[in-house]
Design goal:
Layout lengths: L3 E3 L23 E2 L5 H15 L4 H13 L5 E6 L7 E6 L4 E6 L16 E6 L8 H10 L3
Parallel strand pairs: 1-3
Antiparallel strand pairs: 2-3, 3-4, 4-5, 5-6
């Protein structure tokens, strides 16, 4: 599988979570443009799980925006593919970075290795506008002092 970076997942893999503000993250392995129509539909369904958390009108608009950039969108996978496997995936384009990562537990019982009981998801605007940095900066500049 061209999307697989590593078949095992011995550690946390998120590239865009806490303390990674405005990190420049390389695009992963598989361009969505290389997928067939059925696979592109599955990718759109996966993306809609994240955009669907937004308000109704915003969700459709964001999904349309992301799908319109599918030629610039990439996918990567780390870990196993069995039903009980721990894994990480990233959907990454110039306008969105979506990550799903089974992580090592912090306060849960058991070994400190990634597990299905501790999951992080991240949805960000990649490569420089994390947490709305541009909007916040403009807002602060526009405020009267």
């Amino acid at each position: 599988m061209r999307a697989v970076i590593r078949a095992e997942k011995p550690e946390n893999y998120n590239r865009g979570e806490l303390f990674q503000d405005n990190a420049i993250v390389q695009y992963p392995r598989l361009p969505l443009a290389a997928l067939d129509e059925r696979q592109r539909g599955l990718a759109a369904d996966l993306i809609s799980l994240y955009t669907g958390r937004m308000r109704v009108g915003d969700a459709e608009m964001k999904l349309t925006e992301i799908v319109s950039h599918r030629d610039d969108t990439w996918f990567a996978w780390v870990g196993g593919t069995q039903p009980d496997a721990v894994f990480y995936y990233r959907i990454h384009s110039p306008i969105v970075m979506i990550e799903y990562d089974h992580q090592s537990p912090v306060v849960l019982d058991g070994p400190r290795v990634p597990c299905c009981d501790h999951v992080h998801t991240v949805v960000r605007v990649p490569n420089g506008n994390d947490y709305g940095k541009d909007l916040l900066g403009q807002h602060l500049l526009a405020r009267p002092h």
